[in-house]
């Protein structure tokens, strides 16, 4: 199961040149600065940009290869844009019916009631779409895209046009859609927090090319990543709630190689969760210090040390157990004072852990 994508497109001042194999399930995030070619790549996958010689195979279905290229309307895909394109004069219900009619041969893979329930729009069905909030309109656009029977969902910064409050409102719906439906998603974003929450796989792009690609946790832990994440440098870890401390409102999350305490998010024991730890929130010590307010301190092994963009700073990748990593940002002076070296065991002291889903 995979998405095999190879495109080259030349514009006067820009060339997209991409050859990728993405997993055929879950969320693959296309991430990179403005103008790096994320939307162009999405348009190529959709067949909206002519790319002679390109290749696009979606879980075995050949959409494009050599001279063969299905037109956009014959590609079973749902496309969600920054600005939802709804029929303003029609009700929500009529907009959804339009999506359903487009399902055609692709088949109705998502039942109408399921889409309405997942996006929480049952109470809006009789409303005209021009009276709805930006977040509500985007939920209708996503439901409509699901009803077309897509075998692939393309989302081009679906939250970019929303303010923070609306983004926070829409995020849980995006999480439900991307986790509960078995439809692969290619999700364009330049927001690291969105990628950290939603993605399973990441493709980092720069000037029309892929500079890093792979499973999210693995790519984020690369300290030599060609794209600089600055304040957003850090890792995500997928774990499970193993204990809840009701008195102090804390939960203990186990992940491969260790456990961490986080603020209790209300999840039951056994619930899978994702946590994010920023490099700036991890400091290092040569021994486990007892007299500290920090809840989380883990034995780790120094794996790699890389220079940060500012000459005072370094990024250090740390191995936790056999299969997890943390990244710490520290001054190069501290790294020298601690005589940090590859293979050394140290203690990672973690100032903040965010439970992000
Ligand atoms: N039809 C076109 N004609 C000429 N240049 C184009 C065309 N479409 C895209 N480009 C150029 O391709 C480059 C990549 O644009 P694209 O919109 O794919 O970037 P992006 O990473 O999605 O950016 P953003 O995050 O700002 O949306 C830009 O330099 C853009 O000007």
Automatic annotation (TrEMBL):
Residues 291-357 form the Mop domain. Gene3D superfamilies: 2.40.50.100, P-loop containing nucleotide triphosphate hydrolases. Transmembrane segments: none annotated. SUPFAM superfamilies: MOP-like, P-loop containing nucleoside triphosphate hydrolases. Residues 1-232 form the ABC transporter domain. Keywords: ATP-binding, Cell inner membrane, Cell membrane, Membrane, Molybdenum, Nucleotide-binding, Translocase, Transport. One of its GO terms (molecular function) is ATP binding. Pfam families: ABC_tran, TOBE. NCBIfam families: modC_ABC (TIGR02142). This is Molybdenum ABC transporter ATP-binding protein. The lineage of its organism: Bacteria, Pseudomonadati, Pseudomonadota, Betaproteobacteria, Burkholderiales.
């Amino acid at each position: 199961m995979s998405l095999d994508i190879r495109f080259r497109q030349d514009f006067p001042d820009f060339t997209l040149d991409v050859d990728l194999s993405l997993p055929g399930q879950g969320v693959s995030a296309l991430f990179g600065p403005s103008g790096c070619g994320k939307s162009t790549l999405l348009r190529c996958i959709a067949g909206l940009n002519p790319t002679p010689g390109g290749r696009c195979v979606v879980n075995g279905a050949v959409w494009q290869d050599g001279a063969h290229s299905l037109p956009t309307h014959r590609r079973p895909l749902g496309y969600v844009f920054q600005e939802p394109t709804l029929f303003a004069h029609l009700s929500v219900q009529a907009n959804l019916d339009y999506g359903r009619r487009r399902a055609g041969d692709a088949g109705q893979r998502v039942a109408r009631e399921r889409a309405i329930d997942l996006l929480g729009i049952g109470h809006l069905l009789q409303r005209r779409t021009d009276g709805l909030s930006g977040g509500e309109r985007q939920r209708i656009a996503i439901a409509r895209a699901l009803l077309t029977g897509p075998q692939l969902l393309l989302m081009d910064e679906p939250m970019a046009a929303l303010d923070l409050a609306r983004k926070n409102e829409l995020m849980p719906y995006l999480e439900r859609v991307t986790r509960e439906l078995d439809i692969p998603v290619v999700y364009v974003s330049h927001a690291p927090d969105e990628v950290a929450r939603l993605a399973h796989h990441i493709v980092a792009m720069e000037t029309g090319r892929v500079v890093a690609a792979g499973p999210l946790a693995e790519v984020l832990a690369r300290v030599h990543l060609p794209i600089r994440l600055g304040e957003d440098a850090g890792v995500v870890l997928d774990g499970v709630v193993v204990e809840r401390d009701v008195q102090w409102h804390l939960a203990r999350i186990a992940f491969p190689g260790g456990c961490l305490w986080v603020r209790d998010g209300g999840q039951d024991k056994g619930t899978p969760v994702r946590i994010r730890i920023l490099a700036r929130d991890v400091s290092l010590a040569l021994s486990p210090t007892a007299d500290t307010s920090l809840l989380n301190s883990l034995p780790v092994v120094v794996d790699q040390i890389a220079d940060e963009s500012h000459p005072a700073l370094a990024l250090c990748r740390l191995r936790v157990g056999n299969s997890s990593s943390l990244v710490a940002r520290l001054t190069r002076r501290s790294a020298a004072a601690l005589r940090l070296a590859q293979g050394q065991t140290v203690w990672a002291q973690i100032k903040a852990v965010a439970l992000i889903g």
